[in-house]
Amino acid sequence: MIELAEADTLAAAQSGRALDDLARDLVDELGLDHFAYLACRLPPGTMLEPEDTFRTSYPSEWVARYKDKTYRLYDPVVVRAQRSRLPFLWGQGNFLRPYRKAQRHVFHEAKTFGIEEGYLVPVCGPDGDIGVFTVVSENRDAVRSAASLAAGRIQLFAAEFHDAVMRGIERTPIHAEVLLSNRERECLKWTADGLTTEAVADRLSLSASAVNFHLAKATRKLGGSNKLHATILALRQGLI
Question: What is the rounded distance in angstroms from the CA atom of residue 173 to the CA atom of residue 171?
Fold first, then answer.
């Protein structure tokens, strides 16, 4: 009953601040330090960037750095969350072994802000949207205890939090004119010519991650399911 009452409160929340306060109450009750939420994939017709949905109790200095450096593209937690349907524990040590140096670097920087261990719940929405909600602590035992004793509560909270954020986002009708940046058009054009991401990056003197970033933005604007689908949609609409 506690979980259902909490869900009703989340559903009634009308502002980002109200959502944040509820998430802070949750982590306080669980004996943890922080929460963080990010919609790493937004529904079609959404003009926001994923960074615009970043809600957290992390130190403001880390939040600013995370957004400025577009760390969501490298963050091992976000990378894994987009490939997982199930909640998972993350932290320093073994969790980082499969990831590249640039990805591990994000973790090492986060550690200086007390962001070390967490339990993350991925949430998939009906419009292709994906949100990630995580509770965080410097203490590994505290995180594992919360994940063991309150997993159901955290998972329900994550789903309701994501739903509340999605309900608050304005969307442009799919039939509205799609406005692509020059970079997005270039990346789609070369993709339409059959070039791989790496080849497009070489042609435009960009990094592969930058090309993926522009293609992801274009895909979201066009309402595509992936970059190839977005390329077809752009061709059909005469945008490239």
Answer: 6
Tokens of 236: 């059909």
- pLDDT tens digits, 163-209: 999 998 876 555 456 789 999 999 999 999 999 999 999 999 999 99
Q: Which long-range contacts (CB under 8 A, 24 or more apart) does 54-61 make?
A: 55/16, 55/19, 55/20, 55/23, 55/165, 57/20, 57/23, 57/24, 57/27, 57/33, 58/34, 58/113, 58/115, 58/136, 59/113, 59/114, 61/113
CA dist 101 and 81 (Å) reads 19
Structure tokens at 45: 């017709």
Domain 2-167: which CATH number of 3.30.450.80, 3.90.1150.10, 3.30.565.10, 3.60.21.10: 3.30.450.80
Residues of the chain above pLDDT 90, percent:
68
127, 43 contact by CB (below 8 A)? yes
- Whether 100 shows a pLDDT value over 50: the answer reads yes
Tokens of 84: 């997982």
The predicted structure's pLDDT at residue 6: 62
CATH number of the domain located at residue range(s) 182-236 in this protein: 1.10.10.10
Q: Which amino acid is residue 94, in one-letter code?
A: N
pLDDT at 2: 47
